[in-house]
């Protein structure tokens, strides 16, 4: 039995206003814009944590990753804290203690572990339900838990496990983004322009990181909670836009497939150009985990992406924190040895 999808409410409104179906190219433009905004907002909320770290733990010298049972019960050296008090605030308990940096590292490890595990299950779930609804739930959930992290600022929450659980839940909902947007774009674009389209469209990663950094940095002076709540609210709003306007595939809006080469393979030289992704009519069941690894190019791409992400997330999560700490330490040493004696 063929799987059917209802048209997004926003698409129905536009069609009623125009009294005719939009062209295939117009739908492709809508898909690119909406998915671009969606994943930009995912990365914007993902970037905020690295900015907030400098406010949570502005002075802690401990950089080793420790488990809860390995933490020391000693308090942070008050003399060392006072040396930097003229430049920095006191931070946020429990992250401003002697194990503050280790705690922040645990937040990152937990977030990325749940995110990685969630990617596997999100891919399977996304293949079996309406991607528009799945993506909307993921974005709204991401917004809620990102905002809940910031709510701890006004609620005066100083319990480490509150922030740990919130970050893990945020990572789980964040994992819905990439499998969903790639699948939707794949439904609308074929091999002929895939490199150009994906090259331009994939700029959402950098733009999202830049946007998240700017928003979080500008709001940090009003309280670190705002740096989490505002991006969380924005991704939830974009999630509503996704629900209203995103056409998952041509069948969902009755678009004419014949207007694009994606559904009409043709021979070019000695090679046959096939669809980027097969349509729902051609695929009766979702691809399994083992079958996915057997697809040519999947394994090399996975390993290449592993090392690329290893470097990218090191800079993404720790570079602002590292610069703020080393910069403040150098200023402190200059003050201590060259200014204070005089």
Automatic annotation (TrEMBL):
Please provide, in alphabetical order, the Gene Ontology terms of the cellular component aspect for this entry.
membrane
Keywords in alphabetical order: Membrane, Sugar transport, Transmembrane, Transmembrane helix, Transport
Its placement in the membrane is given as: Multi-pass membrane protein
Entry's Gene Ontology molecular function annotations: transmembrane transporter activity
Q: Which InterPro entries match?
A: MFS, MFS_dom, MFS_trans_sf
PROSITE patterns attached to this UniProt entry:
MFS
Q: Membrane spanning segments where?
A: 22-42, 102-121, 133-155, 161-189, 201-220, 226-248, 298-319
Where is the protein found, in the record's own terms?
Membrane
Residue intervals of the Major facilitator superfamily (MFS) profile domain: 34-342
Q: Which domain of life is it from?
A: Eukaryota
List the Gene3D superfamilies: MFS general substrate transporter like domains (1.20.1250.20)
Principal localization reads membrane
Q: Which family does it belong to?
A: Belongs to the major facilitator superfamily. Organophosphate:Pi antiporter (OPA) (TC 2.A.1.4) family.
Q: What's the name of the protein?
A: Glycerol-3-phosphate transporter
Q: Which organism is it from?
A: Solanum tuberosum
Upper classification of the source organism reads: Eukaryota, Viridiplantae, Streptophyta, Embryophyta, Tracheophyta
* Gene that encodes it: LOC102598088
């Amino acid at each position: 039995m063929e799987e059917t999808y209802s048209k997004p409410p926003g698409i129905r409104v536009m069609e009623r206003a125009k009294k005719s179906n939009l062209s295939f190219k117009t739908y492709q433009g809508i898909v690119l814009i909406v998915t671009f905004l969606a994943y930009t907002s995912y990365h914007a909320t993902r970037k905020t944590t690295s900015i907030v770290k400098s406010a949570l733990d502005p002075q802690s010298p401990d950089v080793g990753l420790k488990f809860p049972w390995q933490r020391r019960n000693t308090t942070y050296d008050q003399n060392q804290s006072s040396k930097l008090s003229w430049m920095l605030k006191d931070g946020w308990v429990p992250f401003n203690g002697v194990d503050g940096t280790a705690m922040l590292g645990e937040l990152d490890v937990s977030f990325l572990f749940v995110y990685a595990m969630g990617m596997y299950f999100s891919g399977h779930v996304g293949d079996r339900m309406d991607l528009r609804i799945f993506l909307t739930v993921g974005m709204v959930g991401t917004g809620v838990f990102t905002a809940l992290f910031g709510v701890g600022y006004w609620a005066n929450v100083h319990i480490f496990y509150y922030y740990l659980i919130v970050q893990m839940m945020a990572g789980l909902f964040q994992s819905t983004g990439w499998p969903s947007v790639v699948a939707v774009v794949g439904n609308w674009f074929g091999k002929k322009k895939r490199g150009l389209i994906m090259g331009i469209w994939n700029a959402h990663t950098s733009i999202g990181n830049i946007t998240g950094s700017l928003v979080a940095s500008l709001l940090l002076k009003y309280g670190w909670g705002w740096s989490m709540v505002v991006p969380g609210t924005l991704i939830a709003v974009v999630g509503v836009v996704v629900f209203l306007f995103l056409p998952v595939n041509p069948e969902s809006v009755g678009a004419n497939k014949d207007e694009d080469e994606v559904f009409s393979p043709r021979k070019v030289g000695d090679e046959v150009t096939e669809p980027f992704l097969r349509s729902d009519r051609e695929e009766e069941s979702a691809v399994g985990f083992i079958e996915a690894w057997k697809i040519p190019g999947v394994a090399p791409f996975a390993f290449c992406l592993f090392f690329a992400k290893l470097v990218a997330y090191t800079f993404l999560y720790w570079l602002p924190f590292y610069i703020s700490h080393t910069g403040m330490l150098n200023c402190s040493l200059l003050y201590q040895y060259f200014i204070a004696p005089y």
